[in-house]
Specification:
elongated, two-stranded antiparallel sheet, 60 residues, 45% strand, alpha+beta, 1 helix
Length: 60
Amino acid sequence: MFNTRKTVFTKEFITADEMGQSCDQITRVAAMAVIRNPLLASIKTTCRRFSMSARNLVSH
């Protein structure tokens, strides 16, 4: 379905509050995935066409 290029997973345990005092443990979890953009080819083509049109306008 998706072409996954990179995945990141992190888990953090917090055992003290902002003042450095012990507190109940808090666990924070984050995950991220980088996938291939299926629209990239059409975006590159559109940008290339726009760039060529702009050059033509400037050169005339």
